[in-house]
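User: Can you predict the 3D structure for this chain?
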Amino acid sequence: MTDFLYGGQSVYRFHAPPSRSGEELIAGFMAAVARQPLITLVTSTPVTGLITDEAGAVAGVWAGGDPGQGGEAIRARKVILANNGFGGNAEMVRRYCPEIAGALYFGHPGNTGDGIRWGMELGAATRHMDAFQGHGSVAYPHGLLVTWAIMEKGGLLVNSLGRRFTNENSGYSAASVEVQAQPEGLAYVVFDERIYRDMQAHDPNFTELVESGAVRGGCDLEPLAETLRVDGPGLAETVRLYNQAARGEIPDAWGRTQFGFAPLQAPFYGIRVRAALFHTQGGLAVNRNAQPLREDGTPIRNLFCGGGVAVGISGNGCRGYSPGNGLLTALGWGRIAGVTAAAQIQAGE
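Assistant: Here is the predicted structure, written as structure tokens:
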């Protein structure tokens, strides 16, 4: 992706399929699995727990139900927990991530923390359980993602008073709790015609936003404020100061240093948005082989994990998240777990 830089990045580092969608990414993985004759993919068969031997080593999983309740024991020499975090478990979110509790959940409903809980039941330690990836711009009430590229290209976020409340360069995850704290939990993305046209040229998902009616305006600031139900004088003053900062005439009040296409000019556009939780970043402590660790540092034998089950690299809260951190633990730890598990089996372990 070479049409914009995410906050914190100085060179282009982000890779995505042409549609920039997770759907296309998963379709590619599914096609790759179908080409492998030694892989059996079983769907609609939820795992309900881990099987352990007398020594406490993992020996397989229970699938399709609990023991004695229709569950089937699937024995395995190695088990890799590849399910996600606990974003879909409201109780766990309230307990571990209270900053974002109550926000819209924009992830898969199956992310209920099962893998983390199974590891904890075997004595695995956890780290950074308060870490999560939030997002500060999901179109409301349309429920469509508003890519942060609009902000990186020069757009800004305001509240119902027409005032900014965050440094948009800090990124979409850090902005999530700031948006959540605004009146009625609502904010408004404001941008101009140049950003609108650039988004049309580079992001296929922007067209869906336009067609849904989420993108309003194409006019001066005063009628845009009326359309969005934002304070007009407040918005006009905010854009005036923002444009001065973009031209280098004054320091930006929120510390922003990268302004994309700004200063902004009519016609203007706006999108009403809410904050959302995308996925959690905390999880089981692991060693360099993706093996869950007990508090004493010893690994749980025959068990591996990645993705949202393993602790990520974002640190605490939402502000350490950088775009791609979730996929990093999925693809990085996933490969390490697979390679290590295979090597142990080949070595007779």
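The mean pLDDT is 94. The chain has two domains: 84-131+281-346, 137-276.
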